[in-house]
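Let us work through a complete example step by step.
Step 1: write down the sequence.
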Amino acid sequence: MAPPDKADDGAAPQQTGDDGELKMPKITVLRLEVSTAMKDEAVTHFAEYLQANPNAIEKDISTDMKKYFDQRHGPTWQCIVGKAFGCSVAYDTQFLLFFRADQHYVLLFKSAE
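Step 2: predict the structure and record it as tokens.
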């Protein structure tokens, strides 16, 4: 069991650089079925949200990503954020992005109707 100060509460990492600034998460795209512009928008929004909310938990991150994409690109987007998960989803072709941000995985997709 982890010590109380090292407990895993699902919050995003709070890494800081040598200058005390919050570091951007290292992004690795694992599956890309959206335009490059949409991928860049998702990654940028994700990083900006983490900078503005360094103690955000996974549920908050996924809720924000879903709402942001619903507003910007129409309904119905879904987002799953976690360190480990399995899934089987139906999605609209050309609307799926799966990436890793440090130790968190993010699956963002538009639901098939």
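Step 3: interpret the result. The domain at 25-111 is CATH 3.30.740.10 (Protein Inhibitor Of Neuronal Nitric Oxide Synthase).
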